Amino acid sequence: MIDFLLEIGFEEFPPALLKRTAEDLSAKVEKLLVDERIFYRSIRAIYTSRRFGSLVLGLTRKQKPQIIEIQGPPKKLAFDSEDKPTKMLQGFMKANNLKLSQIFTKKIKKGEYTCGKKEIAGANTDDILCKEIPEIIRGLEFPKTMVWTKGGIRFPRPVRWIVALLDRRPLRFTFAGIKADRYSSPNQHFSFKPIRLEKPREYLILLRHGGVIADPNERRRIILKRIKQAAEKIGGKPLYTEEMIEEINSTIEYPEVVTGEFENQYLDLPEEVLMAVLKVQGDLIWVKGSNKFICIFNGKKKAVQNVRKGYARGMAAKLYDAYFYYKNDLKQGLQNMLAQTKKMMWLEDLGSLYDKATRINRLVEMFKTVPELDIDVLKRSAMLCKADLLSQMVREKDFTFLQGIMGGHYAEACGEDKQVAAAIKEHYLPKFVGDTMPKTKEGSVLSVVDKIDNVIGAFLSGNRPSGSYDPFGVRRNGYAVVSVIDACSMNISLFEIIDNLLKLYNKDFDKNIISEFFIERFTRYLQDKKFRYDEINAVLAMWKGDVTDARIRCEALKKLRGKPDFTKLVIGQKRVRNILKDIKKIGVVNEELLKEDAEKKLYKKGLETKSKIKELFQKRDYFKILNLLLAMRIDIDKFFDDVMVMCDDKILRNNRLALVNYINSLFSQYADLSQIVIEGENQQE
Amino acid sequence: MKESYTFENIIIRLKQYWQKKGCLLFEPYNSEVGAGTFNPATFIRILDEKPWNVCYVEISKRPRDGRYAANPLRFQQFYQLQVIMKPSPSDIQRIYLESLEHLGLKFKEHEIKFVEGDWDAPTLGAWGLGWEVWLDGIEITQFTYFQQAGGIDLSVIPVEITYGLERIALVLQDVPSVFDLKWNNNLTWGDVYRQNEMEFSEYNFERADPEFLISLFSKYEAEAKKVFNDGLVLPGYDYTIKCSNIFNLLEARGVISISERAKMIGRVRALANQAAELYLKKNSEGKEEKSEEK
User: Fold this and answer.
1) How far does the CA of residue B254 sit from the closest CA of chain A (Å)?
2) Is the per-residue pLDDT at A508 higher than 90?
3) Residue A351: exposed, middle, or buried by beta-carbon count in 10 A (0-12, 13-18, 19+)?
4) What is the total count of domains within chain A?
């Protein structure tokens, strides 16, 4: 048994990529070992800000041997008339070191052949790793890379050393111009002298001596312990998130802790601002309610005094700025900022931010009948929602992400209704997929309308997305629109909002282009909700713009599609569609012209079903509706079996077509079921 | 405080250090710039493949960052020490860290952190990947591997190291505010620059005449274009720098909207890109002529 250590060293890696790259690398090494039949006892991913790699213990020196079947001459040529091996077979046996007793025959396509089994000795683990490890490193994928030497390899940051030790020997390979060797690098706060490694097993301990805790899980435990202890000493609750801890863990090699403080007056700042300052000042952890922070730093205990002083200075400068902006903004007031938005252009040729707010304010009129929604609150928050973009706080780049949040604070401070402040505060939500949704009805509507307006603005100003080009984040906006509408189950038509907004722009623009964009976004949203594309197509084919409604329809469809009746129904619908495809003019059913039992029964069933589902549509009980439609299946099948639709009698024929159309119209109210793909069916049709 | 920690001695020591590492000691540019990167000793010299190692102090003007001398760490004007090494040496990070040791900093007593900070200068069509270097939580250096400048992908990658001199001195001298920094043994930074900070803050935020500045911007831009058409890189680039400074002033004055801002940045970048292309064109022409002569 031998061990293997791979460590790629670089200048500080982007923290957001570190964990997943290290885990990806180890997963690939593991897959390699499995695929190559190399046994190992354990593997773990290691990483710090300056290295990542894998530590594999208990490997076999060689691959497990492999038994393969090899094909000899055809049976006809392998044995002579006396069933003795021919020269040809003897040659094959000799070449492969096989005895006659080991030869057997096998029928394959070309005929019957002789075969033998051969054991192939496993290759050396060493050789396999030498060949494959560089390929694995090269195969790592990154969103953003750089070059540092002319014509050199691309990587997120410059690679500076590679340790690849198999047992006691370095693997022979070169990556990014660097030869794999046995020298690692210590924490630069401890020493610059490379660490010489004799064998992989001493890696963790020798690195620890060099000020590096290479195991991320261990480092994480230390970080959490240190935060806990520091908070207990201060006597408060530390405020942090999982992401913050991961970020800290990815920017250090050896966690030490220090606490510091800032002036009490800064506790007047809104909590979001304080948290933002603590974050930009290096993921400092606030002890809630106090003027104290906890700082995890990379280095030696000896540095505590200087680090405390330094971070506190950094905080003081940044808090000074934040406080300065905050006080000035309050002095100015939201109403003044609003006045200034008249002078701030929103998008070229599309007016000012004030015009945008006015547009939203006018549009939201259409929501005045929505229950449990305060239209006055909505209108006021619409008017004020962009004013904070003129505040000093939001104009500073460290705090720009507080747009909306600051507006909410300023609104409240300036005596606006609390509900108005709440709606302003949350109208930028959700900022990304999976982000929090607005909680209030007014905030939700504001969020939706503002984002649709952003999309329309981008299209009108010639910035529609294409390929990777989406400077205004229009796709994200579109996705957020449908998520918010769905999350608060509002019954509003997306198309109606688009229509009304476009009218307010007074510009000549094909609204279908924008509707299609939203249909595409909605499709993506439904796909993410795990609906199948044909379910989505079926429902959206009949879509009138109500997001929540379409989602509920998809759900019912998904629930029912497993039933055997369902498949038959869909086949029936496809038939119906084919029959109706080329018919241009279709009348209404004349009951007196129905002759056959099957058609009479079907019509009766249709009438019954129609009256039953009418009420259900109002209740949106799509599951029941679909079940009722499904119950028509027997009568539909019987009709098609017994009745000749395309008969010679023109009057009868037209009446039957009208019946088919009538039945079809019942289904169309729900979805275009003919879009459902049935297993085994050619999707292209 | 050690005498070697005076502001002027820090500058001298850093220059000596980089001189020993093979850098040409250069001087600041003679026109207002927002960063040492604008100096032709960086922007122009990094464009080609010829080795270029240089070190100089630059006076960096950032009108928006003025705080009327009331913030201990932010001002509308400060000093940078700019180092360019092209091609970037493979042990450049260590060379940099040792420059801090050379100043007298003991790593065991501080935290030095390389914080991811991708850098881009939209007015120069330039970007690179690198870090902000933090000394005990205070940014003291921007460390960047340039990838593009003037819209041109660089093939020989330069490393740019920009020290914030006041901030380093703050830590070394252990004073709470830059205004308390000892420049030499008699005078502080505040003695030298307080009035400058207060007056320029007032000018930048309150007094600068937007119309005057906008007309200057257009005139400088027109002159730059004309000079480029005459085939002159450096005079044209000189006006590009002036445009950039005017833009910074206008931004501080708070009179340009988001979309206007994007447009003006685009106009300056177009000039910078033109300077870069023209420089490379002239240089490659030169080579061809020479080879023909042979």
Assistant:
1) 10
2) no
3) middle
4) 5
Determine whether the interchain pair B112/A189 forms a contact, defined as Cβ–Cβ distance below 8 Å.
yes
pLDDT at B62 over 50: yes
pLDDT at B249 > cutoff 90: yes
Give me the pLDDT at residue A685, please: 37
Q: Residue A681 falls within a domain, yes or no? A: no
- Among chain B residues, the shortest Cα distance to A156 is held by B129
Mean of the per-residue pLDDT values of chain B: 93
**Is pLDDT above 90 for B4?**
no
State the count of interchain CB pairs (< 8 A) between A and B: 134
- Amino acid identity, position A471: P
Any idea which residue has 């320029």 for tokens? B200
Residues in chain B with CB shorter than 8 Å from the CB of A306 are 109-111, 136, 171
In a domain, A394, yes or no: yes
For the stretch B200-220, pLDDT in tens is: 999 999 999 999 999 999 999
Residues of A in contact with B258 (CB under 8 A): 344-346
Quick one: A70 and A48 in the same domain?
no
Tell me, what's the pLDDT at A681?
Answer: 55
Range of the domain at A595: 561-675
Hey, are the CB atoms on A11 and B134 less than 8 Å from each other? no
B209-286 has CATH 1.20.58.180 classification: yes
* Same-domain status, A572 and A489: no
Query: Domain locations in chain B?
Result: 3-205, 209-286
A12, A160, A281: residue with CB nearest B131: A12
Q: Are residues A353 and A460 in the same domain?
A: yes
Q: Do A97 and A239 reside in the same domain of the chain? A: no
Q: What is the pLDDT of residue A563?
A: 80
Average confidence score pLDDT of chain A: 92
B127: exposed, middle or buried (Cβ count in 10 Å: 0-12, 13-18, 19+): middle
Could you tell me the CATH superfamily of domain B3-205? Bira Bifunctional Protein; Domain 2 (3.30.930.10)
- Find, in chain A, the residue whose alpha carbon is nearest to that of B139: A314
pLDDT digits (tens, 9 = 90+) for B108-138: 999 999 999 989 899 999 999 999 999 999 9
- CA triplet B114, B118, B123: central angle to 5 degrees? 140
Contact (Cβ atoms closer than 8 angstroms) between residue B42 and residue B160: yes
Model confidence over A567-621: pLDDT tens digits?
888 888 888 888 888 887 888 888 888 888 999 999 999 999 999 998 898 888 8
Q: Please indicate, yes or no, if residue A513 is contained in any of the structural domains.
A: yes
CB A319 within 8 A of CB A396: no
Q: Residue A71 is encoded by which pair of tokens?
A: 């094909």
Mean pLDDT of A371-375: 90
Q: Do A313 and B129 touch (CB under 8 A)?
A: no
In 3-state terms, what secondary structure has residue A468? coil
Residues A30 and A147 reside in one and the same domain:
yes
Please list every residue in chain B whose beta carbon sits closer than 8 Å to the beta carbon of residue A329: none
Q: Is A314–B73 a contact, with Cβ atoms under 8 angstroms apart?
A: yes
**Is it the case that residue A650 has pLDDT exceeding 70?**
yes
Average pLDDT over residues A353-376: 92
B155: nearest CB among A150, A309, A344: A150
Closest CA to B258 of A353, A399, A357, A335: A353
Sign of CA dihedral B170, B171, B175, B181: negative
Identify the pLDDT of residue B1.
Answer: 63
A106 and A134 fall within a common domain: no
- A-chain residues near B49 (CB < 8 A): 150
CB contact under 8 A, B157 and A299: no
Chain B positions in Cβ-Cβ contact with residue A314 (cut-off 8 Å): 73, 137-138
Least Cα distance to A443 among A378, A387, A375 occurs for: A378
Which of A50, A306, A311, A353 to mutate to probe the B interface, most B CBs <10 Å?
A306
Between CA A279 and CA A264 the distance in angstroms is 18
Cβ pair A345:B88 closer than 8 A: no
> Where does the pLDDT of residue B286 fall: very low under 50, low under 70, confident under 90, or very high at 90 and above?
low
* ipTM exceeds 0.90: yes
Residue A352, beta-bridge partner list: A345
A616 DSSP β-pair partners? none
